Amino acid sequence: MIQFLVCIPTPGPDLFALDAEEYKSKSFEPGDAFADILTILKSKPNIVQKLYKALCKELLDNMTEDLEDILREGSLQDGLEKVAKLIDLDSSVTEDAWRPPGNIFLHLRSLDAQIIKEESELLEKRVNEIEEENAILMKEVTHKRTEIMTINDSITRSLSRSSIVQDLLEKRMEGLEKCITLLHRE
């Protein structure tokens, strides 16, 4: 026989700010009611002590009644067999339970630390590869820029000389035209 002790304090001026009718009319969620009761219990430690004593007394009384029932009915053997079955059911688990290693730093480390470390190394390697590729591309870009600058300089020089060359060619052409006209006259 299992009994549960439910301790519901009655609303009163010293325990609740609300009267009974107002308390019943409000709709409380289970979490809100728990938070309200917890707040009240924290504010009044003597109530907590009384509640603890009452729960312990109720538990002890129930256990005593159950043992007396077993002794009266003479079913001590049945009770012990039930306990043995429950122990056997519980002991069927042969797996070792995990225990902390004792090393605080190892124990506090994340279980995913190794995976995080490996992924970080892969990311670092990838970043280094990308930086190397960027360095190579920057070298190629600077090389191409220097080539373009030299071509631009040579074109600029050619264009600046072209006026001189053009003047020379015009003078030669005039000289040749004079020669042709002299040849035609003769």
TrEMBL record:
Keywords: Coiled coil. Residues 113-147 form a coiled coil. This is Polyamine-modulated factor 1.
